[in-house]
Amino acid sequence: MADALTTLERGLIVSCQPVRGGFLDAEEVVKRTAQAVISAGAVAVRIEGARDLAAVVPHVAAPVVGLVKRQASVGEAFITATWNDLEVVLRSGAQIVAIEATSRPSGLTLAEAIEAVHARGRLVMADVSTFEEGLAAWKDGADLVGTTLSGYTPASASSLVPDILLVAALAQAGVRVIAEGHYDEPVTAAAAIEAGAFAVTVGSAITRPEHVTSWYLKAIAVAEISDAASG
Questions:
Q1: How many C-beta atoms lie closer than 10 Å to residue 140's C-beta?
Q2: What is the pTM of this model?
Q3: Which terminus of the chain is more exposed, N or C, with fewer CB under 10 A?
Q4: Residue pair 215/185 in contact by the 8 Å Cβ criterion
Q5: What is the largest CA-CA distance in the chain?
Q6: Angle at CA 116, nearest 5°, toward 120 and 85?
């Protein structure tokens, strides 16, 4: 387990989670995407669901952060929040298991889940939305704490920008923190490392061309409106 942590330090983790139902939502595409980003220097990949975990884990030489995502409502998802979800990830062979560690009710008791994962020789990444949740997860024995859910729970303010203040606060408290969530530009990933992040996870900006295309289109639309107003 220590080797996996050493591999991650100050590195880039790429979340290879396609838009579900989209043109890239196929296990072969996810596998090749994971292989491509690792070949380019990513230190690990983050993979969701039994299908894609089975496609990726045996075919990459870097650590895999595995999870099962359950959509509760539009814009709200739970991360490996039941014992069944946990077992799915463990059976996949993923070296790191991402687990819901927010104040939202779930089917897991975090300390027990962490103990169960450690008993199988794996690491735990606790996905949190606030400083208090992150500190509690760290004290419960999580190996990594991700800011993944900042802005996505009732306990955290909604935002479309990275929560670097949360990264810095957790790092200053001695937590091994993974910066994740809205890291859409290289400059923000670098800022997270400077703020004390152990590593940074980037998803859509690398692996979801549908999202990146929409960002450009919105920027163009704003420019057109600005030109029309100034004309």
A1: 17
A2: 0.95
A3: C
A4: no
A5: 67
A6: 95
For the chain, the DSSP string reads: -HHHHHHHTTEEEEE--PPTTSTT-SHHHHHHHHHHHHHTT-SEEEEESHHHHHHHGGG-SS-EEEE-EEEEETTEEEES-SHHHHHHHHHHT-SEEEEE-SSS--S--HHHHHHHHHHTT-EEEEE-SSHHHHHHHHHTT-SEEE-TTTTSSTTS---SS--HHHHHHHHHTT--EEEESS--SHHHHHHHHHTT-SEEEE-HHHH-HHHHHHHHHHHHHHHHHHHHHH-
At 19-78, the pLDDT tens digits run 999 999 999 999 999 999 999 999 999 999 999 999 999 999 999 999 999 987 666 789
Q: Which residue has the tokens 């650590």?
A: 63
Q: How far is the C-alpha of 56 from the C-alpha of 102, rounded, in Å?
A: 27
Which structure tokens are listed for 179?
């910066």
Handedness of CA 106, 109, 111, 115 (dihedral sign): negative
